[in-house]
Design goal:
The protein contains four helices and twelve strands, in the order ββββαααββββββαββ. By secondary structure, the chain is an alpha+beta fold. The strands form three sheets. Strands 7, 8, 9, 11 and 12 form a five-stranded antiparallel beta sheet that branches. A four-stranded antiparallel beta sheet has the order 1-2-3-4, with no helix packed on it.
Length: 225
């Protein structure tokens, strides 16, 4: 159903056979999509599942303010942050069984020698080898560092839970250290913790982000998975 969103007559939503979408001060009109017909074509089914997977992953990543901040200075403003992330994830996605090293950040992250993710009972533990001095990181300006990304849960015990769940996650900040190992703890609050305990398959894609004194992102790492 269409609805007015301002006193000057802007409208958004579906009205008859057309859809109104508003972005900024402009309103766009498109033909309303018809009902999607079920298909038996396995290729089409896989494509739709891939699109749905990437869309849910992107929604989780896009809900993280630090991830959005990484993208906002880049690419033309004609694309939203969601669209930028979606395109990047879709391009790098491999298969539903093995999504691969999903890239949801801009393609300029600093490298990590060794890194790992351990799934505990109620937390994720992320470890990374010393950053070293060759990356150009300045601990006096980039005073802290944080692990941010998406946790994907699948293979539920029964049909009472969704087939998949995507949870945006973020660790506490720790001081930036170049010569010592970095260890991040991502604690899961309720109700995410309940879902985390139920699903049999857990995967995560994270990036390390250095922050200035105001908490603004300075640079990010390659994706850890």
């Amino acid at each position: 159903m269409a609805k007015f969103i301002s006193s000057i007559g802007q409208i958004t939503g579906k009205l008859g056979d057309v859809v109104f979408r508003t972005r900024g001060n402009k309103t766009y009109i498109a033909k309303a999509p018809g009902p999607r017909k079920p298909t038996k074509d396995p290729v089409v089914k896989q494509r739709r599942k891939k699109f749905a997977w990437v869309g849910k992953f992107t929604s989780a990543a896009n809900s993280l303010p630090l991830i959005k901040a990484l993208w906002q200075p880049l690419y033309p403003r004609t694309l939203s942050t969601f669209q930028k992330i979606f395109k990047m994830v879709y391009k790098n996605f491999q298969t539903l069984d093995n999504p691969g090293p999903i890239l949801f950040t801009p393609e300029c992250g600093f490298s990590l020698e060794n890194s790992s993710i351990v799934f505990g009972k109620s937390s994720l533990f992320v470890e990374a080898d010393p950053l070293g001095v060759t990356l150009g990181i300045n601990p006096k300006e980039e005073i802290s560092i944080v692990a941010v990304g998406v946790l994907a849960l699948s293979n539920p015990p029964d049909n009472s839970l969704p087939e998949q769940m995507f949870i945006p996650v973020k660790s506490a900040k720790i001081p930036t250290q170049l010569n010592n190992q970095s260890v991040f703890i991502i604690q899961l609050p309720s109700p995410e913790l309940f879902a985390y305990s139920q699903y049999r398959t857990k995967k995560a894609w994270l990036t390390l982000i250095t922050l200035d004194a105001s908490g603004n992102p300075v640079r990010h790492s390659v994706v850890i998975s």
